[in-house]
Fold:
Amino acid sequence: MSEEVIEEKPVVSKKVKTREDKQAEHIARIRRTAIASLIGVGTGALSFYLGGTPDAAGLQVDGFLGFMLMLAGIVIQKHLFILLGMDTSKLGAKDWFYQGFMTFAFWFMTWTILLTSITI
Structure:
């Protein structure tokens, strides 16, 4: 019988993050989320005020404009992050999807609240 020699690969250890590194990453995530939320609220308010007077059903004449403003807010985020000196090279597709969703969610909530408060 021949014995098979199994080569063992060295275990690659992850870089151990210090408490300061973890705190810095956490603060950066909070800043990104806050910016996405504020952009969403801002675009929601702009969508309401630029969309025209809502009718009795709560529909605006230029509802499509509101959607386009929200998309512009998502696109502006990346440029705003760069202007604020945030490192965007480490952000993956999941991170950008999260940022876009936060902007969308706050845009939708703000615009909906403003539309329904007028029609009551």
